[in-house]
Design brief:
The structure is a single chain. This protein is an alpha/beta fold. Helices cover about 40% and strands about 15% of the residues. The strands form three sheets. A seven-stranded mixed β-sheet has the order 2-8-7-6-5-3-4, sandwiched between helices. It has a three-stranded antiparallel β-sheet with strand order 9-12-11. Strands 1-10 form a two-stranded parallel ribbon. It binds pyridoxal-5'-phosphate.
Amino acid sequence: MEESNRMKRLSRYLFSIIDDMKKEARKNGLDIIDLGMGNPDKPAPQHVVDELCDRARMPNNHGYSRSIDKVECDLRQAIAEWYRKKFDVKLDPDTEIVPLIGSKEGIAHLSLAFLNNDDVALVPNPAYPVHFNGVLIAGGILHNLPLKEENGFLPVLEDIPEKMLKKSKLMFLSYPHNPTAAIAPPAFMKKAVEFARKHRIILANDLTYSDIVFDGHKIPSILSIPGAREVAIEFHTLSKSYNMAGWRIGFVVGNADILRSLSKLKGYIDFGLFKPIQYAAIKALSGPQGCVKQQVALYKRRRDVLVDALKKIGWDVPKPKATFYIWARIPDKYSALTSMEFVSLLIKEAGVAIAPGTGFGEYGEGYVRFALVEEEDRLIEAAKRIKKVLEMEA
Ligand SMILES: Cc1ncc(COP(=O)(O)O)c(C=O)c1O
């Protein structure tokens, strides 16, 4: 059977290639320190797990979920309250909030809801892959916005050709940024909102890492910028802040017209979230937030441990201000390798799995990404093993 043309536009998913490499290395008896995927290693908070279990035992929580059901209304209300407390932004729970089966689902469907074949989406590169793959699946035209180190990994909006701009309908931004770990100054976000308003472009801001921020930095909501609500929506997830990645729950907030179209599309495709997960999400968002603080403190310690350990072995990498990633240039000794080749070498020779920069787009070439999802002793061990590869005789 021949797959559709839209499927032919997609290259093989990065993590499945790396999974194959890890499988092969494990078959050869290697212990793999896995810093490849941004998959939190800790469980969800106990009070959230308890709520899920209690609600799952109730027979009336097993049916389809509808947006008019009480639990879904309560969830939207809890999200609105969380938003008010965290960002000082007021949202209408009925029109400006849509729960998602993980933010990845909503991001992919956004492109499907808005892009026709000739419509352009402006997507930073490197990026979390669904930002660009969603555009390709929808049949839209992708225009990369290169994120370069010398520009603080921010896109240069002035560089977008007028011809592309005329056909542009959608733009993605996401700071704190995966994979570069960059954060955006408020002035840039303001400029992006003005840009989107001027050119009538939907501005989709992916705020997955708004909680995972170190050293006193604070990330505002794009919706706190005057005029943003005319064009902007903002994605969130419980995957990282509350270690609920496998639960599949996120949400999107902002411009009511954009969200109405997204909900319309979703109405034909899914039946919302398992009700016990919604109840548990309410507990997570409205309960004590100490668990989030603890998680951030843990990532900060791991960040310091790994950055210091890499420095000791002669690999100087920047200390990120946010996210649980470290974005590092491939060491000089191996700079002739592609990021995929270098990652393959580290898996085979050191049993350390990290992500190649090109898994996030071609402008990620020359870099690799570490995810801080193993314990401190394993991070130190990873650096020791990498040292051997860096010291290998020619
Ligand atoms: C920037 C970004 N957006 C979205 C997601 C997906 O989150 P979710 O688990 O809610 O689908 C991730 C996951 O790594 C991410 O890094």
